[in-house]
Design brief:
Layout: E1 3-9, E2 13-19, H1 23-35, E3 39-50, H2 56-64, E4 93-100, E5 107-110, E6 115-116, E7 129-133, E8 139-148, E9 159-166, E10 172-179, H3 185-212
Antiparallel strand pairs: 1-2, 2-10, 3-8, 4-6, 4-8, 5-7, 9-10
Helix pairs in contact: 1-3
Length: about 210
């Protein structure tokens, strides 16, 4: 009988033992846990004012790589949202803003100044540096975060690492997942199992259609 047993777990990392699971399915789960589970990342950046030394493109890139806490229970991927809008809606995107005023000394703008309209969907850390502002410089932006998958871009990877190792026993593997912080490692693995199950069902349906043609 296939089984899944938790070996170790903390806020960042989780290891589970997979028994009776074929290697191809175990490896598929590993890949899904790495880049197949949807998480939030900043995707659209509107620069209202940027007088820092860092170009707009550089600011946008740094913002895109900030891990964002994700709530999969209230939001859907844009491709699955009923709004069918390129601009998105409250069910598929979240707006965050930075309004860093001019100062008298040089200071570093960090993710703590990235204010979200949602109490959950916000940076996983408030200490991530974005840009340094010299006296007289200002940064004012509006950004939008949406759900995506790492298969589209690495900024949507749910995990930093996702590894599969073989134990001394036949048909037994250890899956280790280290979260980026967007989701807990437990959420990543459980969502990965659901995603793998869904993909297998879709594949079965395709095979049935092929046979009936």
């Amino acid at each position: 009988m296939p089984s899944l047993e938790v070996i170790s777990q903390d806020k960042q990392t989780m290891s589970v033992k997979l028994k009776g699971v074929p290697l191809q399915y175990a490896n598929a789960l590993r890949r899904i846990c790495l880049n197949g589970v949807p998480v939030f990342a900043i995707d659209t950046v509107d620069i209202i004012e940027n007088s820092s030394v860092l170009a707009d493109e550089g600011v946008a890139h740094r913002l895109g790589m900030i891990p964002i806490h994700t709530d999969l229970s209230r939001f859907v991927e844009p491709s699955k949202c009923e709004c069918k809008s390129e601009s998105g809606c409250s069910n598929c995107r979240v707006m965050l803003t930075i309004d860093a005023e001019e100062g008298d000394t040089t200071r570093t703008i960090t993710s703590t100044e990235l204010k979200s309209e949602d109490e959950v969907v916000k940076p996983t850390s408030d200490k991530i540096p974005i840009v340094a502002l010299a006296p007289g410089q200002r940064l004012k932006i509006e950004v939008y975060a949406r759900l995506g998958r790492g298969t589209e871009h690495a900024k949507w990877n749910a995990s930093n690492i996702s590894t599969l190792t073989h134990t001394d026993k036949e048909g037994e593997y250890v899956l280790t997942v280290e979260s980026t912080g967007a989701l807990s490692p437990q959420q990543i693995i459980l969502s990965g199992v659901d995603e793998l199950s869904s993909r297998l069902e879709e594949f079965k349906e395709i095979l049935v259609e092929i046979k009936t043609q």
